[in-house]
Design goal:
There is one protein chain. The protein is mostly helical. The chain folds into two domains: 53 residues, no CATH class; 121 residues, no CATH class. The protein has eight helices and two strands. The chain has a two-stranded antiparallel ribbon with strand order 1-2. Helix 4 runs parallel beside helix 7. 19% of the residues are buried.
């Protein structure tokens, strides 16, 4: 209970009271410690999930199949799912490239991602999520097919430029990220001119009927 914190939550009487609260990890640990038959289904589920993750470390393809099934259960179309899985592959190639260029910290990955996003969308990642009305949801899971394609173009271009230029410092990596994002940004602008419509939409997955 030492990792629980007091937060004000609304009670049945409509008033707010200080209430014990914890994050997901702590909640799951509390469930594991409960000596009650009612907790057994949750403990069995946790054991199953743990087993599956261990198996996925030996065979990463299992993780891809799990992701595919998860998206299908949520109601995404197979065409969208194929693009989404491809975007994961492209993202992995980019992060591997960044690591080769000395980018290690999670915060640095976030900054570079933000540079790419800003260059191709004209807004920061945070503003992009706010634009779609998202909070904790994954931004890519709420992109249209076209948004996904342009985001993949931005990340692929960044990887290609980085492999050619071999940036040695973080500022140099940021410059490459901006250049890669700009390539997709220029493509977005041309599409908008030719189609007469904005590529980036406020709609999220449910509004786009990507999810039933």
């Amino acid at each position: 209970m030492t990792k629980c914190h007091q937060l004000k939550m609304m009670a049945a009487d409509g008033k707010y009271y200080q209430t014990d609260a914890a994050d997901t990890e702590v909640i799951l640990r509390i469930i594991q410690s409960i000596p009650s038959p009612n907790a057994e289904p949750f403990k069995l589920w946790l054991a199953r999930v743990g087993y599956e993750r261990i198996e996925e470390t030996h065979d990463p393809e299992l993780a891809i199949n799990r992701a595919l099934q998860t998206y299908l259960r949520k109601g995404y179309s197979k065409n969208w799912i194929n693009q989404r899985l491809k975007s994961i592959e492209i993202r992995k190639a980019l992060t591997d490239e960044w690591e080769m260029r000395g980018v290690k910290e999670t915060s640095e990955f976030a900054i570079l991602t933000d540079d790419i996003t800003s260059a191709w969308t004209g807004m920061s990642t945070k503003k992009y999520k706010n634009f779609k009305g998202l909070k904790k949801e994954n931004l890519r899971d709420n992109m249209t097919n076209l948004e996904l394609v342009l985001n993949m173009l931005a990340e692929t271009a960044t990887t290609e430029i980085s492999q050619k230029r071999k940036p040695k410092t973080f500022p140099e990596n940021r410059k490459v990220a901006t250049e890669g994002g700009t390539i997709a940004g220029n493509a977005r602008k041309q599409i908008e001119v030719k189609s007469g419509r904005r590529v980036i939409t406020k709609k999220n997955a449910k509004e786009l009927k990507l999810i039933s």
